[in-house]
Amino acid sequence: PKTPKPQNPKTPVQWNTNRLNLMEKARTKYDHQMKLIIIGESSVGKTCILLRFADDQFPTNHIPTIGKPSLLSQISNLFPSGIDYRTKFINVDGSTAKIQVWDTAGQERFRNVTQTFYKGSHGIILVYDCTNEESFKNVAYWMTQIDTHATKGVSKMLIANKCDMDTRVVT
User: Fold this and answer.
1) Rounded Cα–Cα distance for residues 113 and 79 (Å)
2) Does the predicted TM-score (pTM) go above 0.85?
3) What pLDDT, in 10s, does the model give residues 13-33?
């Protein structure tokens, strides 16, 4: 008999495919490994930046990191809600670098959880939204968090996101 086509996008069939892709990535050999985290206020576009970098996707509508089931949370309960993760392999001058990018939720209630991800990071990407002046004003708060919780001398990058929007208020 024919197997019915799955109706739910989170069916075991899709899960097995995702799991195989994750296992395949785990076996990929690499010469260097880097851990990056993306931080900033809620809704500044951190996850969209991650998806564009890691999966070459550009979602125009997106749900917040908190509340969406990440692949990691489906695999194990080791990763708290409010954290997402992607891996990308990049070849540079004949060497393979494994880039782990951790996407944190910007909601205040998750800030204690995300502080643990600062340690051991090689780089921190701080994102603010050009259409939200408050997110820009809070860059100082996030820089204090980096100074308090990250390894001394960690590389930092500040990204102004949504610069293409007509409603830009930060220039």
Assistant:
1) 10
2) no
3) 444 445 556 566 667 789 999
Q: Tens digit of pLDDT for each residue in 55-98? A: 888 877 655 554 444 444 443 344 445 577 899 999 999 999 99
User: How are beta strands 83-92 and 95-104 bridged, if at all?
Assistant: antiparallel
66, 47, 40: which is closest to 134 by C-alpha? 40
Say what percent of the chain tops pLDDT 70: 65
CA 30 to CA 138: how far, in whole Å? 37
What is the number of other CB atoms lying within 10 angstroms of the CB of residue 86?
20
Q: Which three-class secondary structure state does DSSP give residue 120?
A: coil
∠ CA 32-36-39, nearest 5°, is 180
Burial class (CB in 10 A: 0-12, 13-18, 19+), 67: exposed
Token duo for residue 150 = 């990250």
Q: How far is CA 31 from the centre of its chain?
A: 22
